[in-house]
């Protein structure tokens, strides 16, 4: 039986937030207040749509966005861990469940040569639209009142585990690695012998401590 590694991405695989890192591609490396102040809690992906529209309006090309995204630092030890996973694919499956987007994650992993470690990425779909702008959409809709409107990581994980089981793959152990508030929900579907690995000093660790 295989082991499953489940990773969040921002502040977990990479040591920053890819959605805020992208602002570095702007000439002044900052957003106008009209964009900054448009965020509503739980609607981050809609906010990022406005951010990427603004970046496109400033005539920043997707290639420029990509070159900036490729400079984001990895969390200490993460490149070594993902390299180890890529060398042991016969015994370890690895997925990413993230509130970033497909283009950012793909660009970052490919630049580091680490995409081979990850079997599946579950995140908000992104593409370059007909205007030449990066366009981000919500991953799915769900009924969970604990999670952002665009992504319930528990729903994603449960569906993945169900699909794998249906294909004859059951996991000896699951390790869930994350940092944020939206990483608490998926930990509730883990079994007693599975392991949650919260990033020290971040929100998930504090939320788990309260549960104890």
TrEMBL record:
Record's keyword annotation contains Hydrolase: yes
Binding site for Mg(2+): 8, 10, 179
Gene3D superfamilies linked to this entry: HAD superfamily/HAD-like
Entry annotated with the keyword Magnesium: yes
Alphabetized UniProt keyword annotations: Hydrolase, Magnesium, Metal-binding
Residues binding substrate, per UniProt: 19, 99
GO MF assignments: metal ion binding; phosphatase activity
InterPro entries, per database record: HAD-like_sf (IPR036412), HAD_hydro_PyrdxlP_Pase-like (IPR006384), HAD_sf (IPR023214), Pase_PHOSPHO-typ (IPR016965)
Protein family membership: Belongs to the HAD-like hydrolase superfamily. PHOSPHO family.
Name by which UniProt lists this protein: Pyridoxal phosphate phosphatase PHOSPHO2
Annotated source species: Lates japonicus (Japanese lates)
């Amino acid at each position: 039986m295989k082991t499953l590694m489940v990773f969040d991405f921002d502040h977990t695989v990479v040591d920053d937030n890819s959605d805020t890192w992208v602002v570095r591609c702007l000439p002044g490396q900052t957003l106008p207040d009209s964009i900054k102040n448009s965020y509503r809690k739980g609607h981050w992906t809609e906010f990022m749509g406005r951010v990427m529209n603004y970046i496109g309006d400033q005539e920043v090309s997707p290639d420029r966005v990509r070159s900036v995204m490729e400079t984001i630092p990895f969390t200490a030890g993460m490149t070594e861990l993902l390299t180890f996973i890529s060398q042991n694919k016969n015994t370890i499956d690895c997925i990413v469940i993230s509130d970033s987007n497909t283009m950012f994650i793909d660009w970052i992993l490919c630049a580091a040569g680490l995409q081979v470690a990850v079997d599946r990425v579950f995140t908000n779909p992104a593409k370059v639209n007909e205007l030449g702008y990066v366009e981000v959409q919500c991953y799915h809709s769900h009924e969970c009142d604990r999670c952002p409107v665009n992504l319930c990581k528990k729903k994603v994980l449960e569906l993945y585990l169900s699909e794998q089981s249906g294909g004859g793959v059951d996991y000896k152990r699951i390790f869930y690695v994350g940092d944020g508030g939206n990483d608490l929900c998926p930990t509730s579907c883990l079994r007693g012998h599975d392991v949650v690995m919260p990033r020290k000093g971040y929100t998930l660790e504090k939320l788990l401590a309260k549960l104890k």
